[in-house]
Amino acid sequence: MEIDTAVRHNVPILVVVANNGSWAIEVRDQRESHGQIVGTELRFSDYAMMARGLGMHAQRVERSEDLPAAIAQAMANRPALLDVVVTPDAVSADGKSGLAWVPDLQPLAAWDSAERTFRDIENDRLVLAP
Fold first, then answer.
1. I need a surface site. Which of 3, 31, 36, 46 has the fewest CB within 10 A?
2. What is the CATH number of the domain that holds 15?
3. What is the mean pLDDT of the chain?
4. What is the mean pLDDT of residues 81-106?
5. Residue 65: active-site member
6. Are 66 and 24 contained in the same domain?
7. Of 2, 26, 32, 41, which is the active-site residue?
């Protein structure tokens, strides 16, 4: 619905969807941790079509050589969305531990501190902060 909001308010943004047809970090975590993949391989949905349906300028980009022209056209017609089809085989730097719990990779110290306070990691139980 953020797409609809951007269109209604004519927000000059460019949304770029790196469409890898999966929740790739979770796919890797499931494969390596559990030996099977459940519910994380998706279709290569056409997000550009969805955005156009909400009135946004949108384009699906399937070839890398088409990307520069697509970016230029999108920037001239914002709000816009580019649905860029990418390989599902790329490995994210965050992929080693999945998204469920990545305390060493938290970008904000305050967020990490709050999470550690909320979760009593030592005793593996939830604790409500005072």
1. 36
2. 3.40.50.970
3. 79
4. 67
5. no
6. yes
7. 26
Whether residues 64 and 19 share a domain: the answer is yes
Neighbours of 77 (CB within 10 A): 14
Same domain, yes or no: 62 and 8: yes
The boundaries of the domain holding residue 123 are 100-130
Write the pLDDT tens digit of every residue in 13-45. Answer: 999 998 888 777 777 777 777 788 777 777 888
**Any idea of the CA torsion for 47, 50, 52, 58, to the nearest 10 degrees?**
-10
- Is 28:90 a contact under the CB 8 Å cutoff? no
Question: Can you tell me the distance from the alpha carbon of 87 to that of 96, in angstroms, rounded to the nearest whole number?
Answer: 18
Q: How far apart are CA 18 and CA 44, in angstroms?
A: 10
Tokens 């997000």 -> residue: 47
Place of tokens 């999108």: 74
Residues 80 and 112 in one domain: no
